[in-house]
């Protein structure tokens, strides 16, 4: 959006290390030496993404953990100390603020049992994200809880990997016979390969490499993405931002979320619009486009990112940005025209 003239600078304002600046063409640039890899920019803007794993990949991981009948436990690197080996259901983030409100909303809408296991007092002294991280992840989680009516739980400690001899070495509350039977069961798992499959470092490394390859393929990092102005059918190519896609998926799970989730979108005063289509030419997502049959302005609010480029482009002053709830995606059924 900035490359087309938008003035958004939320990523730079949120970056705790002041590592983000903007090139002459408006595109963001990251100072690799100053960047702490906190991931806050990932939760702020869809233009930023990890080359190792996308938000879609992370969402799939949450679902896999839940499908195993386990709680998803989320923590940050600041809470992982030497010698601590988190269990397989623990997701370790560079900072909790790397997850957007839309991500948390989708997770809660899908009834995925998720809990935080982090000493939040570490946030103030965190070299990676500092107080900015605490402010942003608190906002994200509170927004998701308000939209869904569900809550993110908490744990006092981070679950660790299982230890075969734990019951034998520390039989507190467990008699020797029960401890032995548990050990025999664990050995049976090893013989069948189940435990080896769960805890194999080789498997973890393989899954990490696969996730990285999938992330790179989705991001198309090597070739870049060229946005077409119009396809042969006369429609602007539409680009669904990941955060908007997650919000729509959450609403699909629970339509009541639409009345509680806030969005910023553009609105056209059709009495002033003369279909000059300057807004369609300026729109970076394809939310505003030429109707393929009539050639007049068409508008798909689901793709609107609220960037405001259409407002500046309209010579009639027929467009404004408005605060609304996500119910606008349901009320308009996604499409609108000025005839």
UniProtKB/TrEMBL annotation:
Superkingdom in the source lineage: Bacteria
GO molecular function: 4 iron, 4 sulfur cluster binding; metal ion binding
Alphabetical UniProt keywords: 4Fe-4S, Iron, Iron-sulfur, Metal-binding
UniProt xrefs under Gene3D superfamilies: 3.30.70.20
InterPro entries given in the database record: 4Fe4S_Fe-S-bd, 4Fe4S_Fe_S_CS, Fe-S_Ferredoxin
Domain spans labelled 4Fe-4S ferredoxin-type: 1-25, 26-56, 261-293, 295-324
Name of the protein this chain belongs to: 4Fe-4S ferredoxin
PANTHER family (alphabetical): ADENYLYLSULFATE REDUCTASE, BETA SUBUNIT, FERREDOXIN III
Database matches in Pfam families: Fer4_10
Species: Enteroscipio rubneri
């Amino acid at each position: 959006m900035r490359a087309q003239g938008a003035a958004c600078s939320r990523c730079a304002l949120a970056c705790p290390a002041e590592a983000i600046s903007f090139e002459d063409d408006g595109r963001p640039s990251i100072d690799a030496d100053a960047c702490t890899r906190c991931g806050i920019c990932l939760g702020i803007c869809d233009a930023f993404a990890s080359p190792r794993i996308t938000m879609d990949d992370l969402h799939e991981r949450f679902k896999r953990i839940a499908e195993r009948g386990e709680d998803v436990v989320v923590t940050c690197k600041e809470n992982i100390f030497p010698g601590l080996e988190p269990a397989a259901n623990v997701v370790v983030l560079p900072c909790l603020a790397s997850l957007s409100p839309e991500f948390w909303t989708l997770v809660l809408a899908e009834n995925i049992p998720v809990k935080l296991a982090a000493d939040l007092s570490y946030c103030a002294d965190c070299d990676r994200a500092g107080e900015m991280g605490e402010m942003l992840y608190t906002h994200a989680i509170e927004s998701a809880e308000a939209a869904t009516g569900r809550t993110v739980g908490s744990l006092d400690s981070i679950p660790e990997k299982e230890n075969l001899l734990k019951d034998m070495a520390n039989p507190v509350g467990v008699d020797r016979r029960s401890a032995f039977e548990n050990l025999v069961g664990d050995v049976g798992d090893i013989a069948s390969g189940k435990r080896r499959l769960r805890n194999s470092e080789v498997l973890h490394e393989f899954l990490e490499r696969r996730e990285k390859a999938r992330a790179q393929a989705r991001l198309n990092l090597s070739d870049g993405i060229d946005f077409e102005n119009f396809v042969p059918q006369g429609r602007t190519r539409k680009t669904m931002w990941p955060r908007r896609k997650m919000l729509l998926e959450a609403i699909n799970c629970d339509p009541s979320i639409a009345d509680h989730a806030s969005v910023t979108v553009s609105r056209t005063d059709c009495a002033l619009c003369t279909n000059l289509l300057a807004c369609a030419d300026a729109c970076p997502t394809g939310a505003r486009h030429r109707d393929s049959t009539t050639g007049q302005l068409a508008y798909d609010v689901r793709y609107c990112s609220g960037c405001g480029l259409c407002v500046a482009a309209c010579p009639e002053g027929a467009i404004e940005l408005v605060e609304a709830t996500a119910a606008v995606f349901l009320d308009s059924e996604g499409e609108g025209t000025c005839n």
